[in-house]
Amino acid sequence: MSLSTSPKLIKGGLVILPPGGTGAPTRTIALQYNPDSLARSYQVQGTGGDGGGERAQPFRLKGPAVETLRLEAEIDATDRLEFPAQHADTVEHGIAPQLAALESLVHPSTGDLQALDALAASGVLEIVPAEAPLVLFVWGRNRISPVRVTELSITEEAFDAALNPLRAKVSLSLRVLSTDDLGFRHRGGALFLNHLRARESLAAKSAASTLSTLGLTSLGE
């Protein structure tokens, strides 16, 4: 039994917006259970690339670091199957709908594929693929960032009599899209700047240390 004074559990997840980021969300995917860990890595964008420019100008950054997120989530039908009258879809399909929603993030829609085929059949020489929806990774109100799903791995672990999946582990790799990818006018670019501002604000709250903390009295000038 939950008490009225108990804090409400906030779930992480993904919000899907129309291409271009305009309009209301078309789908929200909440993680059934928050992962125990969230791995983040950064690739620094220095100047010069591999041509020696970074050695000549070591203090210059040409853009935001490329941030990659990795997480593992679990999806389980057990709780819903305890109340079959309220969850008829789970009884019929297991967790297949939730898995299909995640899979839709890495495939073009059938409508987009058929439109591309129609253009090719009509003799169009240069065909530009349709723009994908804008995906936002949400990890609390202070961490909202535009992302692209770069890898999705699903391990189905239990099945019902009709072979519908009942339990699965999902591994997600996400690349945070910055203003370098989206520009400053795109809604995703604006959301990235908000994400960066939030990190800068948190950094400003970090307690400052002194040289003595590091066992130094001076830097030896």
Automatic annotation (TrEMBL):
Source domain of life: Bacteria
Q: Which InterPro entries match?
A: CIS_tube_prot_N
Q: Specify the Contractile injection system tube protein N-terminal domain's residue ranges.
A: 26-176
Q: Name one Pfam family in it.
A: CIS_tube
This protein's name:
Contractile injection system tube protein N-terminal domain-containing protein
Please give the organism.
Answer: Luteimonas viscosa
Lineage summary: Bacteria, Pseudomonadati, Pseudomonadota, Gammaproteobacteria, Lysobacterales
